[in-house]
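Bit of a strange request maybe. I'm writing a small parser for structure token strings and I need a real example to test against, not something I typed by hand. Could someone generate the tokens for this chain?
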Amino acid sequence: MSCHAFLYESCGPTVQSGIFSGIVKNRWLLLLCCAGLTLGGCGESPPPAGSDLTLAWEVLRNHAEGRFDAELTLTNRGRTALPAGGWSLYFNSISVVEPQEPPGSIRISRVNGDFYRLDPAQGFQSLPPGESVSWTLTLPGWSVSESDAPRGAYLVYRDGAGAEQAPEPLPPVFVRPFVTAEQTSRTPADRVEVPTPAGRYRQNAQLTLLEPGEFSPVVPTPVRLERGEGEWRLDGAVQIHHAAELESEAGYLTESLEPLLGKSLELEAGGSGGPRAVLLRTGRVSAGEAEAYRLTVDAARGVEIVGSDAAGVFYGIQTLRGWISPSAYAAAEESLSVPAVRVEDAPRFAYRGQHLDVARNFQPKTTVLKLLDLMAFYKLNRFHIHLTDDEGWRWEVRELPELTEVGGRRGHTADERDRLIPSYGSGPFPDPNLSSGSGWYTRQNMVEILRHARRRHIQVIPEIDVPGHARAAIRATEARAARLEAAGDLEGAEEFRLVDPEDESEYRSIQGFDDNVVDPCRESTYRFLGTVFDELIALYREAEAPLRVVHIGGDEVPEGVWEGSPSCRALTEEGESDLPAYFLRRVSRLLAERGLVTGGWEEIGLAGGEGESDKSPNLEFAGEGFQVWVWNSIWGTRGAENAYRLANAGYPVVLSNAASLYLDMAYEKDPREPGQAWAGYVDTRKLFEFTPLDIYQSGRSDFMGRPIDPASLRNATRLTAEGRRNVLGIQGQLWAEVLHTPQRMEYMAFPKLLGLVERAWAAQPDWARRAEGRERERARARAGNRFANTQ
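Reply from user aminoacidic:
Good idea to test on real output. This should exercise your parser:
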């Protein structure tokens, strides 16, 4: 099957159409496919079903006041009746399901997080073979996507003594089509249209085919590219000459060319280049001081790549790889023609990042390595890996084996002594082969990932999310405490405990957990974190990889935490009134003592106010070097200004804006498109049109699709001169709530990643320098047309 045929047959509606979500995706996936960097298909294999029962889900209507009605239907396709009692049905739901007893004699309750239980109530009749029973539920929010439907349903029977039998997974929930306006509009204010063939045709009609010299054949767009005369021949006789310090880059080049030529090219340290050589060296490059390069392909003189440093040489290699015709990757000829060219280039931002959440749904090591390869090809240099969260702890810590043995597995459990409860449809079995709910990286896996990244000039930024989003760590350390208490080791049981067993605090996180925040008032919390940080340092040292920043999360701590903690009551009685700040001081001190910088989501730089939009930069930590990743940027809220407010206050900032840079948002409002939409819809165009140093240009409509009046943004916070210096760069986010397989992760990442790399590396676009008005819009459209033509 050809690469194009593979894409069209295996992927969903976005791939098959659209200005940016179609043309750009197909052309660049063709290049990656034929370059040996093939992305997976878009489907996912369902877990085995062990039950004759099936569930169907239908959204009936969305209401103006922000609630929706849905119908849940249970059908018996077996040969025996479902009894009137003695069973429970479990499932996960991203949509919140409030505890309720709808007509039909059932009871729905929340277990924790997004995990729910359905039980027959008094009066429920048995369900005979071939029969169905339906219940209408009224839920908060709205639902316009199949991604919102329940997942991972399974049945558990109990015998006469109440003992549970083995879980029986149900087939994947059948989602009935969204067809009416009440089903496809979130509220009457929703102006985002469901895509149609006619609408897609109108969009594509705006495009024109350009001649090769009218657009850059390289993504991201270089600072300068001048085509030359003639062609240079690349074949197995070519040698790679390199400066001694560029041995790694030279080895990488020959490895990347081997699939094209069928053999490895000979390496010569200290060679001076020539007509049949590729010369790699460092030197001055006029385009920039760091990570800059100059690539020259000359028909008579050969190829030379000069970098301002080793990273610059590496990026010159990527441009050479991209300059070679995509057809060469498919043909695998022994001799290739490379057109003459001269490229001078340097990045706009020093920080060019991609984030991946492997905690909520695990991604295997091979998938991470492939993502690192693709990041390197597009000159991204920071990999932010979200290793821990409520739903999983994904790396091995030798001194605390329960972190992975308990926190790295999800499945049916009564007490979570050996696994966490299911989340995001991970199902009842804690087997990594059956779902992405279970799995972790061994120590050797982590070292391999770090070495793979280091060789590609990618720094790996680990995230250990605390004090919130820490349920996996809490349940793991509680299991450890129970094991040691049973053995009589009471002192050992308390050594790394993250919560006070007498804590009576009542809270609920935005993801629905009531027990996911560590206690900042226990010394054991800091003993735990110090041990975790030391293990990280040891891993990076073994991999010889740079570790400069540890991201501690710090986000979404719910109201009500610690109010019932005896440990915190004692600390406040001693005069400590600001527990979040106390926690940050202690953790940042742990990191500083180890020579590391504290990083976190924007919440670690904000303080005061009752709601998130009322908070202001916390000046206590502004001069401490804290790095903040700013995400909460939904148009129409004050959060859109947080990045600039924090940068102006002195915080080094990485722009991670949800409304533009969250790749896990659905491409568009087709109900079949996977992804979330709480920050709006994010397609490749949204990333391509992001303007980092004037984000208000990106705010053309709010998350409901309503046009934003430019006048409403004129008084918004702007970057000061110091604030501009504090913007380190930008980062795309891939949160994992809907990333149940590597194929789904890749589907959400590409082609969106192409818009991200263009904005992270390429110079400020022409339209961003123009005054607001029609001329800016015409310039933006011309740039979009050029980008869609890129191949």
